[in-house]
Amino acid sequence: MNRYLEISEEVKAALEAGDPVVALETTIISHGFGYPDNLECGRNCEKIIREEGAVPAAVGVAGGKIKVGLSEEELMFFAEHKDIRKCSRRDLAAVVARGEYGAATVALTMIAAKMAGIRFFATGGIGGVHRGAQQSFDISADLEELSQTGVAVICAGAKAILDIPLTLEYLETAGVAVLGFQTGDFPAFYTRESGCKVDYRVEDAADAARIVKAKTDLGLHNGILIAVPIPEKDQLDSEFIERNINEAIAKAETRGIRGKALTPFLLAELKNSTGGKSEAANKALVYNNSRVAARIAGEYAKL
Fold first, then answer.
1. Most CB atoms within 10 A, among 124, 209, 245, 252?
2. What is the count of structural domains for the chain?
């Protein structure tokens, strides 16, 4: 595996010392925001994680290697180049073999974190079952990864453009526990509530860490989802964002946009139609998730 996996010295030292480490994806940088906002977002996530006493480990694929813990120069490369392939489990072998660049999705970041021995991963929102999946069968590989890869994913729920009830049904079937961080309601990314319930409410980082530890000790190899509501001051009006989502989905259907191109298109449409409010909320929630993830990782390290 050393032939394909490259862990930065800082991350390697932290893992060997048993210090808290939090993985970060690069799709949110290469495909989530425009430059230079994306670079600022990546840097801020790392800064927040460090402030909470943990080590950030951004994941990406470059030069035939899965890199865990990107340098400032590498992070800047992912931010400046929008044509980098979104890289999930199905893409990994081809991208590595050809020495190409790959922006790590939620699924690939989980794979890399597991390979490196990192137990916690902070992101914005996971992928899931798309609206209309009964006809399109469009279901994100993130859900399948959660069913088989033992990493705790800290997020603001599933992206609001998805079918959240069906996403939760899929996770239940896959045996993935959904924890609500200081909430009994499953958050809907831009808003704090989706109308759906989580499996278990956790009151603080120590409570969440104990559950992750017990899952690990029991030899359960699937992931676990820790859903953190967007801060109340940053959430959007539910009717406002739902109206804009429906308009963006209708536009995507008219243009025949589907597959891995769909989510970036919808997010870009939402940014435009909401006057940037959706992007501001997205940044706020990913920063909050990074902070919570670092605190949970810190409590886990004490165990």
1. 124
2. 1
